[in-house]
Amino acid sequence: LEAFLAPKDLLGLRLLVSAGPTREYLDPVRFISNPSSGRMGYAVAEAARDRGAEVVLVSGPTCLKAPWGVEVVRVESALEMRQAILERYPWAKAVVMAAAVADYRPAEVLKDKEPKVEAEKTIRLVPNPDILKELGERKEGRVLVGFAMETASGLERAQEKLRRKNLDLIALNWVNREGVGFGSPENEVVLISRDGRVLELPRMEKRQVAHRILDLVKEFWKP
Ligand code: CTP
Ligand code: CA
């Protein structure tokens, strides 16, 4: 019903959305990850679809079912997510990067499961590429939206990320607030735009947050 009632104000927009965590494997059965549920990114994909956009969703592992009318590309690691996104970047007019990409991966991935040893163990990590920053370096008129998870000095850090990654919009998430963020159906975000606007949204359903983000994407998008 929601899809039927929504205004088709994003017809012609080709939107690439990323969602969920990434998994960085140590061996075939162990990985490093984070608690992202994927809900925020899926909400953006569904809201955009309802408004007439053509949507591709690059998703890390989640429990969510594939939204109808959206092409879903499933990936696990940050490197896989990077490849899936870069392949579709030439097609996209806008990108909403809601995935919680792991900042590091194990320096080596073991082929077989190692038996445990009764001793301390050190894991060497190497940095993952910053996907969004790469997109910002070859933006060519696209609209780029990022998310920032912060626990302290959020506003300044989010504004710094917006500039460093050449974004139009960044959604600041407070991860230490109760009942919002990771895994929750609701979210409380601050939207910071390239032109200096700071919009503090009240706590609302992720689907509603998605619509507010898309309102701004529409504003920055030049068909
Ligand atoms: N991001 C990305 N690739 C990475 C890390 C992050 O594309 N390797 C994206 C996220 O999807 C998000 C934005 O960059 O949209 C900001 O992510 P965040 O983790 O807040 O920023 P970082 O640059 O990783 O900085 P830090 O974790 O140190 O705060
Ligand atoms: Ca990070």
Total number of domains:
1
Strand content: 25-35%
Please state how the strands of the largest beta sheet are arranged side by side. 5-4-1-6-9-10-12-13
Q: How is the main sheet built?
A: 8 strands, mixed
Total beta-strand segments: 14
Shape: globular
What is the subunit organization of this protein? single chain
Mean pLDDT: 95
CATH architecture: 3-Layer(aba) Sandwich
What labels would you give this structure?
eight-stranded mixed beta sheet, binds cytidine-5'-triphosphate, Rossmann fold, 223 residues
Short description:
By secondary structure, the chain is an alpha/beta fold. The protein has a single domain, classed as Rossmann fold (3-Layer(aba) Sandwich). Helix content is 27%, strand content 26%.
How does this model look, in words?
- There is one protein chain.
- The chain is of the alpha/beta class.
- The chain has a single domain, classed as CoaB-like (Rossmann fold, 3-Layer(aba) Sandwich).
- Helix content is 27%, strand content 26%.
- The strands form 4 sheets. Strands 5-4-1-6-9-10-12-13 form an 8-stranded mixed β-sheet, with helices on both faces. A two-stranded antiparallel sheet has the order 2-3. The protein has a two-stranded antiparallel ribbon with strand order 7-8.
- α2 crosses α6.
- The chain starts with a helix and ends with a helix.
- The model has no long low-confidence stretch (mean pLDDT 95).
- Bound molecules: cytidine-5'-triphosphate and calcium ion (CA).
- The site of cytidine-5'-triphosphate has 14 residues, from α4 and β9.
